[in-house]
Specification:
homodimer, Molybdenum Cofactor Biosythetic Enzyme, Chain A, Alpha-Beta Plaits, 3 domains, six-stranded mixed beta sheet, globular
Chain lengths: ~425, ~425
């Protein structure tokens, strides 16, 4: 690795279920964040089925592409398609051998589990034995579930960290993997990563592209890695500087903030949800929701964070007109006059939620999420949102959102979070 | 490819934001499902950053691993880090050239967008020109957003399908990609995939592993590909037969169903959520939710499906004690006597939701999602659930769930969905 270059890493996630669309991988993105934070450049994230040849090929590919650190996830379980320990041993040129001490550790964990659940017998014994096979010379991590992770040095090749697939076990094993001697030796060679992350709301990616072109004409940006990512209305711009280019990164940050200040959410990497939590905690305000088309998605987003009970009063999912009237006091004749999807009803949902739940901020959302239910005047994607506060502030939006039912519900929730942020005074001053 | 073998495919998803953990990829899993349905064997799913060398290496790796179909997602956008068309052209040995007709199509789309949003100018023109560069000989797909997808035949190599990264555009482009002549020629060679999918609730993966070992002693399962996937309490077992092995697959299905009938959810691939929707639609029953720790997650799950207004009355997120009492009639002295997290309060939440929202089935959930709020008697993970019906049926569960705050909320929601399924008579008869 050249001076100033970040060492490359690769992640190989195993599991045939990931390749039939049965389940989405969450370990890859989680490890990606960790590796970026440590200063590695993640070159490839590979998902492979539970086939020894394909896993072996993936390991070789990642090593050939220059990875100095190779992390695998999954394939340590009790079934015959759990092959990772064997394949990694072959890759590293090491014997796989039965480890008495590991076996004793797993057996003790399994005994406790059997006592609680009543499961035991030969299937459990075979699983325990299988999970006690370890490549010779590997560092065995303390198990979080039953399958222990491994740190496997390879002669002249990458360091291989073998982690279990269940996300809770993978995340729980990560700190002990970092603490091992081979990993510490590798980390000592990683230059500190300088990274800045800007978030904007309602700014098209093409505008940032144009700004980057213009700034790039005056400033040499070649020592920076700039990535942009649009997620519905939120745009994230990540700027990573190689060592020595930190000042250029700061200059670019200043330029982008100056040019797009009106759409700026944050300069410290915080997304809308984080900013909403901060603003509500700082102001001491509480929030209540009255949702129709989003059906609880907004309340659930608000409750996602630990400590949200400090600022979430609760909410009502008023999916039917009767529920809107009975639980949130939306006048039945208002629904008849303007329709359930209307700015008037959004306002009444916001006010009703705020008053009935005794909150400072009320949010109302009503819309046509589709695929059915659209009319010429109010096609699928028509959504009315309103945020009202106890001191008389009202922020309303009436929009037509594109995409599927899921898209429309998610975009509505995003926009509602942004409006809460505005009402709670959590936006940077322009 | 040998007779009876499924042709291999690979998916290469580009985007540096996927490798810093900024965003999770949803295109890979979606394409995985599509490819499995068409009868391909997805060998690898690779995520690579927006670096030409890494993308090129990924394409070569997938081709070397025997992929006859190679699908890329992303990198067709307006910014300089959008490199896919160039890299695929190089991979296929084709010139990249400006396409007048594509340019006219994109310009017309962009003009409409500019008129609506007010954005225009040189940044938009440059983006349009960049997105009009096409490898010579490629089939250009009708654009769903602005960037058109491509189907690129390579001499003696895999067929490359280049799709845009935004999920809506990728999914929208897929049918036209399938309809192209080169894709139709490839599909004509794909043997029909026979696949069966069993779902169980509350069955540990090690028990299925043991059943597979036992059945495998009597029955030759080598022509089957069996994958198991545990997602919280739900276990999916997928059985794919090579042509000729369909009867073996059926025999295995019968064995597994017979051995684990009590935990069986479905034999047709349906998951809990799908079964709940079916059972509620078939019975004409409606459901209402009273949620504390899950905070709207259950309501949102129920509303996920199109047509859910037929059976979802609505719900209340009663996060505070005051909300539980005011909106769902939970007696304040009951909360004092038993605590907000108690079977009594779960029952009162279920009854209150059912009565206040006029539904047939009420669901109550109250628990300690953590990380704070746990006590010795009721540690983090303690959750009480109750489903009550208008005709006097009551199903209650008091559990201690493992994992993080997000895990506990999701597992609680899973269990609630299962209890609704049971109450609505949607489980197979044992």
């Amino acid at each position: 690795m050249d001076a100033g270059e970040r060492p490359r890493a690769a992640v190989v996630v195993t599991g045939s279920e990931l390749l039939t669309g049965v389940i989405s991988d969450s370990n890859g993105p989680w490890l990606a964040t960790e590796l970026a934070g440590l200063g590695f450049e993640l070159a490839h994230l590979l998902l492979v089925g539970d086939r020894a040849d394909d896993l072996a090929a993936a390991l070789r590919f990642a090593a050939d592409a220059g990875a100095e650190l190779l992390i695998t996830s999954g394939g340590l379980g009790p079934t015959a398609d759990d092959l990772t320990a064997q394949v990694v041993a072959d890759f590293a040129g090491l014997e796989l051998e039965f480890d008495e001490q590991v076996h004793a550790t797993i057996a003790a964990i399994v005994a406790g589990w059997s006592a609680r659940t009543g499961f035991s017998g030969p299937s459990v014994d075979a699983a325990t034995r299988k999970q006690s096979m370890v490549p010779r010379g590997a560092v065995v991590l303390p198990p979080v579930g039953t399958a222990p992770g491994l740190v496997v040095p390879t002669a002249g090749g990458p360091l291989v960290v073998v982690l279990p697939g269940p996300p809770r076990e993978l995340r729980g094993s990560w700190p002990s993997a970092l603490a091992t001697a081979p990993m510490q030796a590798l980390l000592a060679r990683v230059p500190r990563a300088e990274s800045r992350s800007l978030h904007f709301f309602g700014l098209p990616e093409s505008e940032i592209a144009e700004s980057l072109r213009e700034v790039g004409a005056a400033l040499d940006l070649t020592a920076l890695e700039v990535t942009t990512c649009q997620r519905h209305s939120e745009l994230e711009v990540d700027i990573r500087a190689r060592p020595g280019a930190e000042e250029t990164a700061e200059a670019l940050v200043d330029e982008l903030v100056g040019r797009h200040r009106r759409q700026l959410l944050s300069t410290d990497g915080a997304r809308t949800d984080e900013l909403v939590a901060r603003a509500l905690l700082a102001s001491g305000l509480t929030v209540a929701t009255g949702e129709s088309c989003t059906g609880g998605m907004l309340a659930s987003r608000l409750v996602d964070r630990a400590g949200s009970s400090a600022y979430v009063a609760g909410g009502v999912v008023a999916y039917t007109n009767e529920a809107k009237t009975a639980l949130l006091g939306v006048p039945a004749d208002m629904i008849v006059a303007h329709g359930a999807v209307s700015p008037q009803v959004a306002r009444a949902l916001a006010d009703g939620a705020r008053e009935r739940l005794g909150a400072d901020i009320g949010v109302g959302i009503t819309g046509v999420a589709g695929p059915g239910g659209g009319t010429e005047a109010k096609p699928v994607g028509t959504v009315s949102l309103c945020v009202s506060t106890g001191d008389g502030q009202v922020i309303a939006r009436d929009v037509r959102l594109p995409g599927s039912r899921a898209d429309i519900r998610e975009r509505s929730t995003d926009l509602a979070m942004y409006l809460i942020l505005r009402a709670a005074g959590g936006l940077p001053t322009p």
